[in-house]
């Protein structure tokens, strides 16, 4: 690891935190495999994983809707709620997992010794192909452009990730999602994303070369997500200036 990259990771006294959640929608099983890939990589002996463990704190809630998963629900919890629409005001009784995770995030946000730098919520998509992300729209043009850096880097690392399918929005229907709510709560050094991955296939090369996803392919995407954090911090000194937002297609 170049000294400059280590310096970017270790600068300041605060603890740098990456918070990852998955499976808030029980039927989106690919999200669990992607999350498993992230976890497996982070606890592995890979040298990149060791650097990440040395300099970052990863907090992972791999199943936000365990009762819905147990019951075989597609989208809702035991109480019939779509938990990913209740981030603004989750009930400790009706949405206990969401309430607990939100409180933990707020406690970290209010701790001056902790800098919550990334929030990524993992989902699966029933109609789109490839992996892609949703991000937020900000009035601050520099912050908006900085938010595009991570998905651009992930596109370089993962052949199944599409930056051209990645979009940034403030759709009112999504106001209660983790990505939207936390994007409005956290400060301008925090970046919040929804990571989506297709239920069925990704495209390599031409439009007819669709490759079916397998459990291993989903986990590989997860490993590539984890690896991308090192690339992000290695480039951290470069992204102080605005970067172009032209999508890179695959």
TrEMBL record:
Keywords: Carboxypeptidase, Hydrolase, Protease
GO molecular function: metallocarboxypeptidase activity; zinc ion binding
Pfam families on file: Peptidase_M14
Residues annotated as domain Peptidase M14: 1-233
GO biological process terms, semicolon-separated: proteolysis
Necessary cofactors: Zn(2+)
Active site positions: 196
Domain of life where this protein originates: Eukaryota
PANTHER family noted in UniProt: CYTOSOLIC CARBOXYPEPTIDASE, CYTOSOLIC CARBOXYPEPTIDASE 6
Protein family according to the UniProt entry: Belongs to the peptidase M14 family.
Protein's name according to its UniProt entry: CBPC6 carboxypeptidase
């Amino acid at each position: 690891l170049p000294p400059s990259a280590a310096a970017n990771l270790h600068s300041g006294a605060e603890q740098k935190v990456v918070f990852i959640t998955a499976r808030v929608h029980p039927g989106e099983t690919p999200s669990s495999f992607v999350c498993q890939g992230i976890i497996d990589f982070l606890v592995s002996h890979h040298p990149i994983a060791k650097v990440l463990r040395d300099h970052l704190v990863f907090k992972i809630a791999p199943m936000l809707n365990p009762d819905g998963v147990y019951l075989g629900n597609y989208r809702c919890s035991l109480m019939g709620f779509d938990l990913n629409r209740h981030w603004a005001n989750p009930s400790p009784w009706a949405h206990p997992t969401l309430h607990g995770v939100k409180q933990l995030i707020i406690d970290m946000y209010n701790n001056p010794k902790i800098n919550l730098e990334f929030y990524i919520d993992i989902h699966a998509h029933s109609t789109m192909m490839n992996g892609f992300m949703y991000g937020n729209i900000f009035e601050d043009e520099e912050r908006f452009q900085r938010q595009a850096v991570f998905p651009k880097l992930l596109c370089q690392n993962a052949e199944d990730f599409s930056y051209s399918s990645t979009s940034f929005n403030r759709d009112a229907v999504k106001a209660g999602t983790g990505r939207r709510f936390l994007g409005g709560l956290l400060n301008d050094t925090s970046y919040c994303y929804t990571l989506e991955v297709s239920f069925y296939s990704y495209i390599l090369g031409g439009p007819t070369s669709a490759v079916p996803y397998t459990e291993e392919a989903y986990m590989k995407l997860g490993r590539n997500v984890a690896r991308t954090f090192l690339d992000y911090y290695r480039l951290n000194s470069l992204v102080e200036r605005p970067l172009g937002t032209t999508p890179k297609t695959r």
